[in-house]
Design goal:
One of its GO terms (cellular component) is cytosol. The protein is of the alpha/beta class. It is 42% helix and 16% strand. The chain has helices at 29-38, 45-51, 67-74, 92-110, 119-135, 144-150, 169-183, 206-218, 240-250, 267-275, 286-293, 304-307, 321-324, 343-362, and strands at 20-27, 56-63, 82-87, 141-143, 190-194, 222-227, 258-262, 279-283, 298-303, 330-335. Helix 11 (286-293) links the parallel strand 8 (279-283) and strand 9 (298-303).
Length: 363
């Protein structure tokens, strides 16, 4: 036995370690999908449960969006024992304000805090601990951070898996059927697209989106338009570009080369469809992150001011993790005036993705 491994010191009593361990993540769909990638704990749940089989993993998710969507992202994960979903304004905004005020106003004066602490980190740990006290006041429970600290566990001793959203066999079959019904035995490549958004910062020109889709159809590609029923209804938008985008996408409903998947099926059905696309083209949205997680070759259409954002350390914002890490399945186009109506640039990115994905497969 390797006694230097932090897991092995507990091997003799691993079955007796049976308390609750709390994880918290939250935000919109994109934020939650991003956490599936950057959370050291979520990507190691399988090996944590293998090392401590009677540990009870409790996942708390708060969301700014649909609670059903947030729940669907985690409910089939076999390593999560209890899942709670709530709206983000339940208690967390007050806690974030507290953390921000504490660090911004008192840090310089008191020098009591470690320099690496920031409001986000304090917020996450505080929500975990407040929730732990509220939900399990008389139970043996830890936050995951506290569990690793108190048991002197090294995160690197646990195997890290690829990020994923677990989906059912029925959902897998659904995604395959949507593709097969569209191509009908042909060898046409399928491109999934998602351009809906009510956020003016993330919009691309709807006229360009319509021209691009039609030109791709003319080149022999099959198109799957993804969205929700609400997103596809122009009456739900105040922004004129968002209204136009909904109208233009609706214009492809009856096109035989297009599968119009703007409905209220679960997010896991959407993931199953994306997994079966040969390529995915989207704006900056939650589906962008889900496409990256499925390793579907993805072209993100990003506004210039968005992709150039930097964090406080001068790095590309972690929100664009796949692009920042040069993942072979992640490509992007900065939507400036020069590239706005250039479908040739899309085709160039597709060829580049074919090359990088082939290199990944051979590597």
């Amino acid at each position: 036995m390797d006694n230097k491994n932090s897991i092995n010191r507990w091997a003799a009593v691993k079955d007796k370690i049976d308390f609750k361990v709390i994880l918290y993540y939250g935000g919109g769909l994109g934020d939650i999908a991003h956490r599936l990638f950057d959370s050291h704990y979520l990507r190691r749940l399988r090996s944590i449960k293998k090392a401590f089989p009677n540990l009870h993993i409790v996942q708390l998710v708060d969301t700014t969006r649909s609670m059903d969507t947030a729940k669907a992202m985690f409910e089939l994960n076999p390593y999560i024992d209890t899942l709670y979903v709530c709206k983000q304004d339940f208690m967390n905004r007050d806690i974030f304000v507290f953390a921000s005020n504490l660090l911004s106003k008192r840090k310089r004066e008191m020098n009591h805090f470690q320099p690496e602490l920031d409001a986000d980190l304090v917020f996450l740990q505080t929500v975990n601990r407040v929730y732990e006290l509220l939900a399990f006041p008389r139970s043996r429970s830890f936050t995951m951070d506290a569990f690793f600290q108190q048991f002197k566990l090294d995160i690197n001793d646990f195997k890290q898996d690829d990020p994923q959203v677990y989906i059912s066999k029925e959902e897998e079959s659904y995604g395959k059927k949507v593709k097969s019904d569209l191509v009908e035995g042909s060898k046409s490549k399928v491109i999934g697209v998602h351009f809906f958004t009510g956020d003016g910062k993330r919009l691309i020109d709807p006229q360009y989106a319509r021209v691009m889709i039609q030109e791709l159809i003319d080149l022999g590609y099959k198109i799957i338009i993804l969205g929700t029923e609400k997103e596809s209804d122009y009456k739900n938008y105040e922004n004129s570009w968002s209204k136009d985008m909904a109208r233009f996408m609706n214009g492809f409903k009856d096109n035989p080369d297009v599968s119009y998947q703007c409905n209220d099926d679960s997010i896991r059905h959407k993931i199953a469809i994306i997994k079966n696309c040969d390529y995915f083209i989207c704006n900056d949205s939650g589906l962008q992150h889900l496409a990256w997680i499925t390793k579907t070759p993805t072209i993100s259409m990003l506004r210039e001011q968005t992709v150039m954002e930097r964090d406080r350390f001068g790095r590309k914002t972690g929100y664009f993790w796949a692009i920042a890490l040069n993942k072979p399945y992640a490509s992007y186009i900065i939507m400036n005036k020069k590239s706005q109506f250039d479908t040739e640039l899309i085709l160039k990115r597709i060829k580049e993705l074919d090359s990088t994905m082939k290199g990944e497969a051979n590597g």
